[in-house]
Amino acid sequence: MTSIVPAEAEHFGSLAADWWDPKGSSAMLHRLNPVRLRYIREAIDHHWGIDDTERHPLAGRSALDVGCGAGLLAEPLARLGASVTGVDAAPENIDAARVHAAGQGLTIDYRSGDLASLNLRRFDLVTSMEVIEHVADPAAFVQALADRLAPGGLMVLSTPNRTTASKLLLVEAAERLGQVPRGTHDWDKFVRPEELTAMLEDAGLIVGDLRGLVPMPGRGFVLGDNHAINYLLTARYR
Amino acid sequence: MTDIHTSDVIISGGGLVGQTLALALAAHGLSSCIIDPADPAKVIAPDFDGRASAIASASYKMLDAIGVAERLAGKGCDIRKIWVSDGLKPGELDFTAADDDGPLGTMYENRDLRIALRDAVAESDRIALHMPARAVTTTRGPHGVEVTLDDGARIAAPLLIAAEGRRSPTRDAAGFHMANWSYDHSAIIGGIAHELPHDSVAYEIFYPAGPFALLPLPDLADGRHRSAFVWSVARADAAGLLKLGTRGFTRELEKRMGGLLGNVTMIAPRMAYPLGFHHSAKITGERLALVGDAAHGIHPIAGQGLNLGLRDVAALTEVLVDGARLGLDLGDAQLMDRYERWRGLDSLSVSVATDVLTRLFGIRGKAASAVRRFGLGAVQATPPLKSLFMSEARGESGDLPKLLTGMTV
């Protein structure tokens, strides 16, 4: 961990507290977390043939979470047994993530910066959730993710679809109703499943499973066949 | 400063519900630390808890799945039929288990349940028992819960579970609002030997002063038949009934029984428990979950009190085990929300239904009696209503946690 002066530590502590506040500005991510973790868990079990009752399915494996924020996904991956590296472009997120992981007693290697320019090794599991819709060059980003995937590894991505439904729900309704901070999403940059599939294939990967994620009144988010709002997918080497 | 002992959860309260929860979690690889101020020898002494509990078949399936049922072999008496009546007048309603169905529930003495749970807890290497011990300080913070005990031991976990019974100090300290009212009734409980066999029938007889229940237990070693009774009386009358000599009390008891089981002999000390209804408006908080009577207590006429607590155990176990397998912090607010959604409403509906039943049967007068008889007759004549009552007695209604179907999570 880089040296942080106390005033900064306090600032990142409150930033982490906001990230990790289930009712704070990341409330939507907190509600999404169990559902997408379930998807990731099923993908892990399927990919490596692990029993679904195993508590540490990633023991002995390495994991990279790109766009990790304050560690909402990186921490669960560490609890599942992985040695985790978290990358985020924003240094303040990384500092907040470090403060929180320390409080949880978790050892996670957090790095701030651009994935392609960080000199990282390859990982058994590479995840990047709700990130590709924010990057300048999605194809280059997908290639950079593929470059970090170890042979025999598993990649899991999630992102909003570019449909009328997602525009109405994620951009208009959710942001106006304050469910998601205003300005979070730029609908024109959303990536369709077939576009993402093509980018992954160009990077030498194939898509294994594609699943939709839709909000259900009173039940939160559920996994299903409807990809119109948001989707998750797995990819591996051909 | 002593080392901190860390586990997956801290359970405050090592009674029937708290121990069952620890064992259910242990069966899925989750560790717990139980804190209880009681003397472990006293709670299994014959005069500590003279009650008997109806374990609904769904609850029994869970006890079986977590390895407790085998320790209860031969100690229970199946309930094959529940006979409900308004006084001793005609118009009775019976709920009978069909032959191919399991029993409606099984009666156990609480003491036998306590012994089985104690032995199972002692053998588990995933349960640390601090008993007798008191928490001196309890801190629920953003990263976890830390408790310092009166013997200086320090324990930590991501989640604190209060299984402390109806006067839960942890719940009260958390400032949870309680909906409660007293029935102004007490239950006098005790054990009897009787002349005629009970044929595995539980009797619930509603008198204007309150319900009277006879619950079948296994025969005594000398071959005499045995039942437990739960007799609700106005609180003002309870003291007098407890003071009555054995012969006088037995005579009063036989009057209520109307010769159903022949001559009666008292075989266990009588005890009185005040009856009330209470329900916590919330059953979860920051890194805190309530189970059992700490969350909700109901009138025992329908035999659902412990079963409600065991349903909490099954649901919370499933929530926590699922959460652990997703790598979530076990005190995560999403997990607490899931448990709250699952158990908050369900237990309230059973509480309210039981309360309505008690009030309905607590009204005096001929008209009320006719309404009750008609009501019972209507249930008898309406199969869907009757099967709803039956499945509620079995503990099978609502969105079932896996453990209550006999499967581990």
TrEMBL record, chain A:
It comes from the Bacteria. GO terms for molecular function: 2-polyprenyl-6-hydroxyphenol methylase activity; 3-demethylubiquinol 3-O-methyltransferase activity; polyprenyldihydroxybenzoate methyltransferase activity. It catalyses: a 3-demethylubiquinol + S-adenosyl-L-methionine = a ubiquinol + S-adenosyl-L-homocysteine + H(+); a 3-(all-trans-polyprenyl)benzene-1,2-diol + S-adenosyl-L-methionine = a 2-methoxy-6-(all-trans-polyprenyl)phenol + S-adenosyl-L-homocysteine + H(+). It is an enzyme of class 2 (transferase). S-adenosyl-L-methionine binds at R36, G67, D88, M129. Its EC number is 2.1.1.222, 2.1.1.64. One of its GO terms (biological process) is methylation. Pathway: Cofactor biosynthesis; ubiquinone biosynthesis. SUPFAM superfamilies: S-adenosyl-L-methionine-dependent methyltransferases. CDD domains: AdoMet_MTases. Keywords: Methyltransferase, S-adenosyl-L-methionine, Transferase, Ubiquinone biosynthesis. Belongs to the methyltransferase superfamily. UbiG/COQ3 family. HAMAP family: UbiG. PANTHER family: METHYLTRANSFERASE (PTHR43464), UBIQUINONE BIOSYNTHESIS O-METHYLTRANSFERASE, MITOCHONDRIAL (PTHR43464:SF19). O-methyltransferase that catalyzes the 2 O-methylation steps in the ubiquinone biosynthetic pathway. This is Ubiquinone biosynthesis O-methyltransferase. It comes from Flavisphingopyxis soli. The gene is ubiG.
TrEMBL record, chain B:
Pathway: Cofactor biosynthesis; ubiquinone biosynthesis. GO terms for cellular component: ubiquinone biosynthesis complex. GO terms for molecular function: FAD binding; monooxygenase activity; oxidoreductase activity, acting on paired donors, with incorporation or reduction of molecular oxygen. The keyword Oxidoreductase applies. This is Ubiquinone biosynthesis protein UbiH. Its cofactor is FAD. Belongs to the UbiH/COQ6 family. It comes from Flavisphingopyxis soli. Residues 7-341 form the FAD-binding domain.
